[in-house]
Design brief:
The complex is a heterodimer of chains A (255) and B (247). Chain A has 255 residues and is mainly α. Chain A is 85% helix and 0% strand. In chain A, helix 10 (212-223) packs across helix 11. Chain B has one domain: 3-Layer(aba) Sandwich (Rossmann fold), CATH 3.40.50.300. Chain B is built from eight helices and ten strands. Chain B has helices spanning 40-48, 90-100, 110-114, 130-143, 160-175, 187-193, 211-218, 223-246; strands spanning 2-11, 14-24, 29-33, 55-60, 63-64, 75-78, 148-152, 179-183, 196-201, 204-210. In chain B, helix 5 (160-175) links the parallel strand 7 and strand 8. The longest helix of chain B is centred in the last third of the chain and has 24 residues, at 223-246. Chain B is globular. Chain B starts with a strand and ends with a helix. The chains are: A mainly alpha (255), B alpha/beta (247). Chain A binds chain B through residues 3, 7, 11, 14-15, 69-72, 74-83, 252-255, and chain B through 11, 45, 48-52, 69-73, 75, 77, 79, 83-85, 87-88, 96-97, 99-101.
């Protein structure tokens, strides 16, 4: 397992993508730090960019990586190693590169200009989203034989969770405005990792007061120990689920 | 040594192997033949565990390969088209494969040396020509002195000198009593290298016996013409079937 991971990492770290993505993250972070001195404003801007960019790049990169490394995967499958290890080494290498880009890209400017607890949570959410969307991308990749199709499916995951789902929730809230919707919206938030990440982060900042009664309800829930535990547990389930599903398919896949 | 038992494999609606049974014994060398798309490569990939059959089982050295992976260290496999990570160098590829088999300490580098690969260990894989890649594949298949050698079109794309080197090596290994399984469309080569012929037609074993009895049955003295006759028969059998179905 560790041997496989070593070779997978060796290959991926040398690729141009790892460097470019990290550089891009650094540039984004630096430019936002330049704009404002206020920490919570910085985190908020970083959050907004992160929630759009990270799922997109994770999904696309993981899919292309899977198909570009198909040769390596096939080669390994003819060797005396477990299928599970072949799969895990590939996805862990992708997750490692994506997480390091966030840690270095956002972390380095933070070390320079200071940070607080909310920024650390921001990093954790970024890594969580990378894992989730890399998992979804691998799932799309093992389900198809065609690279273009797999990228299409990965992109639709991104569009769904970033745009379509929010539209659906807004529509629901708007058309059922006469009913108390705090608990249903809470449940709906759990069904979308991007929204979940956003809410967890927003609750760390003192802007929930702007969100009316629902905001207060969310503040109450996500501020409590039970809420924090539950939301991180759900986030964790989101991280595990696509990866295990993809692994199950991979184990039965023909190469 | 390898026992293929009632293997059934479908790709979508296409049935590639139907109720497929075969026995491969050590000390023999088998020529696996059949028209394109007859299921040769699929059979090999099933033995290696790269393709998972819908039904049936494979025993290697008496043990089922289901859920097992260790048996693959007994198999040297040379794929039809060797595809390797682009960024990797030949030397790194060799040491990686050696790293995958920590229990084997003695490496047979004879083939790599004869092919001249030892002088270009720091060449990245993506700069290599198709023939050189084949040489790398061949060297890897023989590197760990496995008991079973599976060679899928081993000489395709190799220059005549390399073909001779590889053939000599295969004959040398055969004399050591190893199980060798070769697929090829170059019949003269199979005649030299193998003593047992298996002909697959439409996912079924059409012929499975020694080369001598193949010549006997077909009444031909040359291997190539005997196989040509076998192909004719298999096609005729198909024609008769279709004619009947039109009645």
């Amino acid at each position: 397992m560790f041997k496989l991971l070593k070779y997978a990492l060796y290959d991926i770290v040398k690729s141009r993508f790892a460097l470019l993505y990290t550089l891009f993250m650094v540039l984004v972070a630096i430019s936002i730090y330049q704009v404002s001195e206020d920490m919570s404003k910085v985190s908020l801007s970083l959050l907004n960019i992160m929630l759009m960019i990270i799922p997109l790049i994770s999904a696309i990169f993981a899919t292309t990586h899977f198909f570009n490394n198909l040769e390596f995967t096939e080669l390994m499958l003819a060797q005396p190693v477990k299928r599970r290890d072949v799969f895990l080494s590939q996805i862990l290498a992708v997750i490692f590169v994506l997480s390091m880009a966030i840690l270095i890209g956002f972390g380095a400017p933070m070390l320079l200009w200071g940070a607080d607890a909310s920024v650390l949570i921001l990093l954790a959410i970024g890594i969580g989203l990378s894992v989730i969307f890399a998992g979804l991308a691998f799932l799309a990749s093992v389900l198809t034989r065609d690279k273009a199709k797999a990228i299409g499916i990965s992109l639709s995951f991104w569009i769904y969770f970033s745009l379509v789902y929010d539209g659906f929730v807004l529509y629901l809230i708007y058309s059922l405005a006469d009913y108390p919707l705090e608990k249903p919206t809470l449940a709906l938030v759990f069904l979308n990792p991007v929204d979940l990440g956003r809410i967890i982060m927003l609750m760390q900042l003192d802007i929930s007061a702007l969100m009316g009664y629902t905001g207060a309800f969310f503040q109450d829930f996500f501020g409590s120990a039970k809420g924090i535990l539950l939301s991180s547990a759900v986030m964790f389930i989101w991280m595990i689920l696509p990866v295990t599903a993809a692994m199950r398919v991979f184990k039965r896949k023909d190469f | 040594m390898i026992s293929v038992q009632q293997i059934h494999k479908k790709f979508g609606k296409l049935e590639v192997l139907k109720d497929f049974n075969l026995e491969f014994e050590s000390g023999k060398s088998y020529a696996l033949m059949g028209p394109n798309g007859s299921g040769k490569t699929t059979l090999i990939k099933i033995i290696l565990g790269m393709v998972i059959p819908n039904a049936g089982d494979i025993l290697v050295k008496g043990k089922s390969i289901k859920g097992s992976f260790a048996y693959r260290s007994d198999i040297g496999y040379m794929p039809q088209i060797g595809r390797y990570p682009d960024n990797m160098k030949i030397g790194q590829l060799f040491s990686m494969m050696q790293d995958m088999r920590p229990e084997i300490k003695k490496y047979d580098m004879a083939l790599a040396t004869e092919f001249g690969l030892m002088d270009m260990l720091d060449k990245p894989m993506h700069t290599l020509s198709g023939g050189t890649r084949q040489k790398v594949s061949a060297s890897l298949a023989f590197m760990f002195c496995p008991d079973i050698l599976i060679l899928d079109e081993p000489t395709a794309g190799l220059d005549p000198i390399a073909v001779e080197i590889l053939k000599t090596k295969i004959i040398h290994e055969r004399e050591k009593g190893k199980l060798i399984l070769i697929t090829s469309h170059i019949l003269s080569e199979l005649d030299e290298l193998t003593n047992h012929a298996i002909y697959i037609h439409e996912g079924k074993v059409f012929f499975n016996d020694t080369t001598e009895s193949l010549k006997d049955i077909t009444g031909e003295s040359k291997f190539t013409t005997a196989i040509a006759r076998l192909m004719e028969w298999s096609l005729k059998k198909k024609q008769i079937k279709t004619e009947l179905s039109h009645v």
